[in-house]
Amino acid sequence: MSDNRAAANAKLTRVDKAAILLLSLGESDAAQVLRHMGPKEVQRVGVAMAQMRNVHREQVEQVMSEFVEIVGDQTSLGVGSDSYIRKMLTSALGEDKANGLIDRILLGGNTSGLDSLKWMEPRAVADVIRFEHPQIQAIVVAYLDPDQAGEVLGHFDQKARLDIILRVSSLNTVQPAALKELNQILEKQFSGNSNAARTSLGGVKRAADIMNFLDSSMEAQLMDSIRDIDEDLSGQIEDLMFVFNNLADVDDRGIQALLREVSSDVLVLALKGSDENVQEKIFKNMSKRAAELLRDDLEAKGPVRVSDVETAQKEILTIARRMAEAGDIVLGGKGGEEMI
């Protein structure tokens, strides 16, 4: 194998390998695999499929060989969108092949009206529920994954956003009749069946999870509004939120895994505004040489905008939460799940 091709293989991520594997399968087999994946996973793999260019035979052989060794392992991946997936699969497979695959993935199975919303872009979800009763809006937002729910809330004004998050925090269970009514509202656009049992949904922890994914300025404004209405509730939400400084409480193995996924430029920016405990936690989980270079970069970095620091920290937290969902790390601190 040439040095160039060896280097190309070394750069393949796990998602790239999954994309190569699926592209190597026939349409029917690829469809069967994708039907067992959620919207987040399909989007991540699908994007990689669409971006594949000039895949060498050696790369395919490498992926197939590794797959045989680790068959059974699963990778948790990022949020899906119906229209985006359609375009991506068409780009990757061609219109004829993609049409049959899209029909089986997006239109097949027993997807409920609520589950169908998880395949939509956040703006589209916001448009679907914009004129519904606030309690219906709250149920939908609580049902979505926190990152998608946060983006959906971003498309509402501050007053509506506050109303919805307060309702989410007070939700506990939803009666079958309410879910049936909600699915009936959605069934004109989506095929769906009502849930037959009471469903646990919402609560203060869910509200905190959603708040974690809001833009920093939006999050601060919303928290101030909640505090004005119910100081005790705002305290509960803050206690359950996982913020950047809580990374100091993540175990060393988790920090090491996280650092492998974060670029040095983003890390330097994020650490500029972080607690000293977080900085030391990062330094101790790097090689001596890498830690020295990072310290030098931090010292050499001039003044930076607070918004840039917050954006970098949000990016790292998003990666951390995704890894936590995949079971790759355990988040400690306020937002972490207790271990026994």
Automatic annotation (TrEMBL):
Coiled coil stretches, renumbered: none
PANTHER family with a match to the protein in the record: FLAGELLAR MOTOR SWITCH PROTEIN FLIG
Cellular localisation: Bacterial flagellum basal body; Cell inner membrane
Name of a matching Pfam family: FliG_M
GO MF annotations, alphabetized: cytoskeletal motor activity
Residue span, Flagellar motor switch protein FliG C-terminal domain: 225-331
Domain Flagellar motor switch protein FliG N-terminal: 11-112
A GO biological process held by the record: bacterial-type flagellum-dependent cell motility
Keywords carried by this UniProt record: Bacterial flagellum, Cell inner membrane, Cell membrane, Cell projection, Chemotaxis, Cilium, Flagellar rotation, Flagellum, Membrane
Superkingdom, natural source: Bacteria
The protein's role, per its UniProt record: FliG is one of three proteins (FliG, FliN, FliM) that forms the rotor-mounted switch complex (C ring), located at the base of the basal body. This complex interacts with the CheY and CheZ chemotaxis proteins, in addition to contacting components of the motor that determine the direction of flagellar rotation.
Protein name stated in the entry: Flagellar motor switch protein FliG
